[in-house]
């Protein structure tokens, strides 16, 4: 079945080159007057307002439907005074089909300028004033509408809504890259700094009515990450514990398995320990091996072609740090310091680069790391920490936080000559300015891939779908959560979500010592996601076990009802991901098992599947072939350190699996290097059967496991 999604082609392009938050982009139609109304007609959708009644009179109509009040309560309220509502001037600019109005502030001669035009099917409202005063603008909620849960649109809750009676989607989006406010959502808020000065009003607000969910999702007006393609083709591995020798040995091990497209993030290395006496983090902790040991490990890995990033944090400042200075701290509007992690305080955003400039060049020179990890900065919304100090640039504006955070990321890129990784949560706001984050998704969330695939992915590729302990159902409850290697079923679902959301391969600390798991991320997820990254999404369709659903239908269903998705790319790749508890038949020959996936396109076949009852993993594209017969049974021991046999889910050890040119009862990766092939048995030293047919090998579209006696 083919589902056409009318907004994908134009919106994908807009997402990568958007100049503002508007969901839709394109030429606008003429504005015209009809009696007391000004009408903006975009064809299928039209908007109108009655200037004398102000912004709250904005209405919308889709096709031949009724006019719907969209903006009740959308009023600029001067704190302690009243609304801005007296119209003094109005006209239509015939050259660009925009409407211009002026409204007088109450008890003042100052005026608010309003400019309204169309961006595709979006009504774009610009507000400005020459002088500032404390004010608030409530977020409108059309009568009869309900908020929709859009995974990863964190902080903009309630901005995407559905009108049940009219069967239409609605969004009200404040452009966080153009606001002068302290807080843009849910209500726009302008507040005075500690000297009583308030920034002048400056807003771009996008109001959209559509019959498709894609038509109301915000664009992200950021630049494209220069490391987007590289990150898609790397496996990110987290190291939270262990001495530097052990980390180096693990990276040496990866090199021995041909896994040089690795990016390692070393979290615990700092001079005084993790999250202690920040920002004074250099030299490395002597208890973990000190400078020479860390330098040796990092430089070997870099020599293999790996990226290595050390964990840094210029957001939290600790009072016992040698460099501690209260002049570096941001202030809240009440004059107090902004509390941060444990007993630390938030650094003024304008001072972050100053601290980084004292440390980053030294790390680069003395250790040789060629990437960077910046903690916290992308895990918090920029509007969580505007600085109200009068001498702070962009005082009392979230703009200061956003701009100086972008400056810090650019400085890190330049210093290390490589990508900057961050903590997930609000990284969508920074996508492209930040190169990647470990996406803060959860196994408990709605399964809806559209916002990430269509809006974030054109700008930056995240790695993974969350730290295991944040992603899974157990969280931080087990006391040994950092040692709990995820179960096979958990890892299957984690990888399936990576592939569905187009996230780069990721290995958490709990699994970085299990070479079988690491190799599966590297040889299965990494090459497939890299293929996805090069192509545009052309189709997304969901299935509820009974029927196909468009994204607009799926987002309205109960959360647990939709756990299957089909994603097509313009290079011919089609991906099916099944997160339900039952097998999903996708054609007459193939069924995708629970927590499995199946991806096929010109010259490539990849899956984790239990076709004919046998679980195995395969990737083949003519240059790389990987096959894991899953004849090893696993379960976690009480400390979670290793897996040992005892799990009926895996195969019974007597299965010989054949796919493409590979036949094996173990796990194997074959890589073409010129005219030769490199062969890796995973793990090395395990006895097993391998048969290769490497003369003109092609990925086999037919899955064909066969029974044989156990090899010994």
Secondary-structure map:
Elements: H1 8-17, E1 31-34, E2 37-41, E3 45-49, E4 59-62, E5 68-69, E6 77-78, E7 82-83, E8 86-93, E9 98-104, E10 111-119, E11 122-132, E12 135-137, E13 145-147, E14 160-163, E15 168-174, E16 188-190, E17 200-210, H2 228-232, E18 235-239, H3 244-256, E19 262-266, H4 290-304, E20 307-312, E21 316-317, E22 345-346, H5 352-366, E23 371-374, H6 398-416, E24 420-423, H7 427-430, E25 436-438, H8 450-456, H9 468-471, H10 488-501, E26 505-507, H11 515-533, E27 537-543, E28 548-549, H12 551-554, E29 564-569, E30 574-578, E31 584-585, E32 591-592, E33 596-601, E34 604-609, E35 616-620, E36 624-628, E37 655-659, E38 662-664, E39 667-673, E40 676-681, E41 690-692, E42 704-707
Helix pairs in contact: 3-4, 5-6, 10-11
Protein described:
With 712 residues, the protein is α+β, with helices and mostly antiparallel strands. It has 2 domains: 8-216, Beta-galactosidase, Chain A, domain 5 (Distorted Sandwich), CATH 2.70.98; 228-533, Glycosidases (TIM Barrel). It is 18% helix and 28% strand. It is built from 12 helices and 42 strands. The strands form 8 sheets. The protein has a 10-stranded antiparallel beta sheet with strand order 28-27-29-30-33-34-35-36-39-40. Strands 8-9-10-11-17-15-14-13 form an 8-stranded antiparallel beta sheet, with no helix packed on it. A hairpin with a 5-residue loop joins strand 4 (59-62) and strand 5. Helix 3 (244-256) runs parallel beside helix 4, helix 5 (352-366) runs parallel beside helix 6 (398-416) and helix 10 runs parallel beside helix 11 (515-533). The protein is globular, with a radius of gyration of 27 Å. The relative contact order is 0.09.
């Amino acid at each position: 079945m083919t589902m056409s999604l009318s907004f994908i082609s134009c919106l994908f392009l807009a997402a990568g080159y958007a100049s503002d938050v508007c969901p839709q982009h394109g030429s606008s139609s003429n504005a015209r007057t009809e009696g007391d109304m000004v009408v903006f007609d975009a064809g299928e959708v039209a908007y109108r307002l009655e200037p004398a009644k102000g912004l709250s009179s904005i209405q919308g109509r889709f096709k031949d439907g009724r006019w719907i009040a969209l903006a009740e309560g959308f009023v600029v309220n001067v704190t302690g005074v009243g609304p801005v509502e007296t119209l003094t001037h109005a006209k239509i600019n015939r050259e660009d089909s925009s409407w211009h109005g002026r409204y007088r502030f109450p008890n003042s001669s100052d005026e608010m300028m309003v400019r309204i035009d169309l961006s595709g099917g979006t009504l774009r409202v610009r507000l400005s004033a020459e002088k500032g005063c404390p004010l608030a603008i409530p977020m409108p909620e059309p009568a009869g509408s309900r908020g929709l849960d859009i995974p990863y649109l964190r902080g903009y809750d309630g901005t995407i809504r559905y009108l049940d009676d009219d069967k239409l989607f609605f969004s009200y989006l404040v452009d966080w890259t153009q606001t002068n406010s302290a807080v843009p959502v849910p209500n726009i808020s302008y507040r005075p700094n500690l000297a009583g000065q308030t920034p002048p009003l400056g807003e771009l607000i996008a109001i959209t009515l559509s019959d498709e969910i894609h038509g109301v999702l915000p664009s992200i007006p950021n630049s494209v990450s220069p490391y987007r393609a590289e990150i898609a083709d790397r496996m990110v591995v987290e190291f939270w514990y262990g001495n530097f020798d052990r980390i180096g040995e693990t990276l040496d091990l990866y090199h021995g398995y041909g896994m040089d497209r690795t990016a390692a993030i070393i979290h615990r290395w700092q001079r005084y320990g993790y999250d202690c006496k920040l920002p004074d983090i250099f030299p490395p902790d002597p208890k973990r091996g000190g400078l020479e040991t860390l330098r040796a490990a990092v430089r070997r890995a870099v020599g293999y072609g790996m990226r290595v990033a050390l964990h840094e944090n210029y957001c939290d400042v600790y009072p016992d740090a040698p460099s501690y200075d209260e002049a570096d701290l941001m202030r809240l509007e009440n004059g107090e310091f902004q509390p941060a992690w444990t007993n630390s305080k938030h650094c003024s955003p304008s001072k972050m680069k100053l601290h980084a400039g004292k440390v980053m060049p030294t790390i680069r020179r003395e250790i040789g790391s060629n990437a960077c990890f910046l903690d916290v900065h992308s895990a918090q919304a920029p509007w969580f920490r505007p600085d109200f100090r009068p001498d702070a640039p962009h005082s009392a504006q979230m703009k200061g936080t956003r701009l100086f955070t972008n400056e810090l990321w650019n400085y890190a890129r330049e210093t290390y000559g490589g990508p900057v990784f961050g903590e997930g949560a609000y990284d969508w706001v920074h996508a492209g300015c930040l190169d990647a984050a470990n996406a803060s998704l959860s196994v408990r969330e709605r399964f809806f891939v559209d916002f990430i695939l269509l809006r974030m992915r054109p700008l930056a590729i995240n790695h993974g779908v969350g730290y295991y302990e944040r992603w899974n159902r157990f969280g931080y409850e087990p006391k040994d959560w950092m040692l709990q290697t995820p179960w096979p079923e958990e890892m299957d679902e984690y990888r399936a979500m990576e592939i569905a959301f187009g996230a780069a391969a990721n290995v958490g600390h709990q699994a970085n010592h299990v070479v079988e798991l690491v190799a599966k991320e590297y040889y299965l997820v990494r090459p497939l996601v890299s293929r996805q990254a090069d192509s545009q999404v052309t189709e997304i369709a969901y299935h509820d076990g009974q029927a196909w659903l468009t994204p607009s239908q799926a987002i309205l269903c109960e959360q647990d009802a939709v756990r299957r998705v089909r994603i097509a790319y313009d290079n011919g790749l089609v991906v099916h991901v099944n997160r339900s508890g039952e097998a999903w038949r996708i054609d007459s020959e193939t069924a995708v098992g629970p927590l499995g996936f199946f991806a096929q396109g010109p010259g490539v076949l990849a899956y984790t599947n239990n076709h004919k009852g046998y679980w195995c993993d395969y990737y083949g594209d003519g240059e790389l072939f990987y096959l894991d017969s899953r004849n090893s049974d696993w379960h976690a021991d009480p400390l979670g350190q290793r897996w040992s046999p005892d799990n009926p889910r895996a195969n019974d050890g007597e299965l010989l699996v054949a796919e493409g040119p590979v036949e094996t009862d173990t796990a194997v990766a074959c890589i073409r290097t010129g005219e030769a092939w490199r062969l890796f048995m995973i793990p090395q030293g395990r006895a097993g059967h391998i048969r290769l047919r490497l003369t003109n090998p092609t990925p086999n579209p037919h899955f064909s496991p066969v029974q044989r006696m156990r090899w010994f």
